[in-house]
Amino acid sequence: MSAPVGLRESGAMTEEGSRVAAHDSQTGRLPGLFSSPGTSSFTEFLGAYSPETLPGRGALPASSPGDDIPHGTTIVAVGFPGGVVMAGDRRATAGNVIAQRDIEKVFRADEFSAIAIAGTAGIGIEMVRLFQVELEHYEKREGRTLSVEGKANRLATMVRQNLGMAMQGLAVVPLFAGYDEERDTGRIFSYDPAGGRYEERDFYSIGSGSVFARGSLKKLYRSDLSVDDAALVCVQALYDAADDDSATGGPDLARGIFPVVAAVTSDGYRRLADDEVGAVARSVVEERYDSPGGPTAPLR
Amino acid sequence: MPFYVSPEQQMKDKADYARKGISRGRSVVVLQYDDGILFVADNPSRALHKISEIYDRIAFAAVGKYNEFENLRLGGVRYADINGYQYDRRDVTARGLANVYAQSLGTIFTETNKPYEVELVVAEVGADADTDQIYRLTFDGSVADEHGYVAMGGQADAVAQALKDGYEEGASLAGALRVAVRALEAQDSERRLEAKSLEVAVLDRNREHRLFRRLTARRIEELLGEEDSSAASDAGSDATPDSPSKPDED
């Protein structure tokens, strides 16, 4: 054996400030649970190690907290040849109050997928965090990424675990979009609060403004969109949702707050830069001065 | 009837046993280059890795018995992910990980009959070469804080000597890879290593989010070819890693 170059200490390094949640407080070594071969699911491991930190596993509130807790609103997703674009407005509401005007509800799930949430913001964001770690954890342990369906199914389980909370009025519903390498297409999955998983064709929307957004998407969608056009369709649909739903925020030109738009293609997840989306949003607002209802579809 | 064996003898026997096991395997080298930390293993297997990602800025390299270091790797991934989830991604450090590995290896060494026949490197890439951290852990739980380069495994002395002769601070990726391959060839006078029989990965500080990536055989060939054809102006030529978006293609 060669002699190490640096200092050599037996046992632990003794510098203060190590923030270790996960070691045995008596011996400092990894607890046995960490070295059991077990599962490659982070959620299952967390459930065994520290079950109270799993979303949906805590005690249920005795009564519904009502409108006092921030809710996230509208999310849209549009498929196009070779990928999918997902976008969300920036508003969170607590009853009639705007709780947050620049909340982000669209996230990178992993390199080839995106996730967005509508419903109780706090629970939703926690679910997204857990889902992100779940995918990365599997990838690192197994040396391969999950299939798109595998990811969608894991998410369904997480949504189902929140059913108790949903029954108390703290529902959260995600929208999942991924790039399918085998088929070279984008795929969109929606969920219901009971964990039902549904694959959607072409486009979909969730959240309080989703009805209006979907009407808009229906008229604007076509099967040969480019990434930029799909992003434009999303921004138009969010504008229409904000037009009729008070809980959905439109582009805030004064503050420079624009929807979060992300594209997932064979190049991976890419969030469009703020000035890119800003330019699109400005042109949409501009056009609406002439035609408040947005682009008109041909009658036949 | 059990014989009395003095503690000194017992520890020495265990250490000899572990060293013997480790020296049978092939070597792994870890070295710093201008954009991060390079890991090179003499390992033709595509399935069983000796080099792995632990977290955003942290990677793991090991020699010795596969099932034993794989067990430590999986535990390390759990440790890192649970800390990152419960605190923040920035709170997962190579120092913390090296610490729990040291405790685990130390306890196994003293308390069980059979010590782990492994040697590990836990490395974290920093904002620049001065803040890179490389920890080397041995079977008994000792930790050494290394700078520049590390060699482990069979014939580690010969490999380390070759690294010492060839290593330069701030080398390019191609330059560092060539030094590493030369060093691994020093294991055996007739050993010639091709791209296919190498497992190569980097922690590249210029990437975003997850800095670990494996290099494909094609990329390894390119890099080795680059250095062979000319030693001239290799500065920015290796600045673009292959298909930057894909996380872990192996």
Question: What features would you describe in this structure?
Answer:
Chain A contains 8 helices and 14 strands. With 300 residues, chain A is of the alpha+beta class. In chain A, the strands form 2 sheets. In chain A, strands 2, 5, 6, 7, 8, 9, 10 and 11 form an 8-stranded antiparallel β-sheet that branches. In chain A, helix 6 crosses helix 7 (227-244) and helix 7 (227-244) packs across helix 8. Chain A is globular, with a radius of gyration of 22 Å. The N and C termini of chain A lie far apart (81 Å). The relative contact order of chain A is 0.15. With 250 residues, chain B is of the alpha+beta class. Chain B has a single domain (31-225), classed as Glutamine Phosphoribosylpyrophosphate, subunit 1, domain 1. Chain B contains 6 helices and 10 strands, in the order H-E-E-E-E-H-H-E-E-E-E-H-H-E-E-H. A 5-stranded antiparallel β-sheet of chain B has the order 8-1-2-9-10. In chain B, helix 4 (156-166) runs antiparallel to helix 5 (173-185) and helix 5 (173-185) packs across helix 6. The radius of gyration of chain B is 18 Å and the shape is globular. The model of chain B is unreliable at 230-250 (pLDDT under 50). At the A-B interface, strand 1, helix 2 and helix 3 of A face strand 3, helix 2, helix 3, strand 7 and helix 4 of B.
Structure summarized in a few sentences:
The complex is a heterodimer of chains A (300) and B (250). Chain A is of the alpha+beta class.
Helix/strand order of chain A, N-terminal first? EHHEEEEEEEHHHEEEEHHEEH
Range of helix content of chain B = 25-40%
Mean pLDDT of chain A: 88
What count of helical segments of chain B does DSSP give? 6
Number of helices of chain A: 8
The CATH homologous superfamily of chain A is called Aminohydrolase, N-terminal nucleophile (Ntn) domain
CATH names the topology of chain A as Glutamine Phosphoribosylpyrophosphate, subunit 1, domain 1
**Subunit organisation of the chains:** heterodimer
Class inferred from helices and paired strands of chain A: alpha+beta
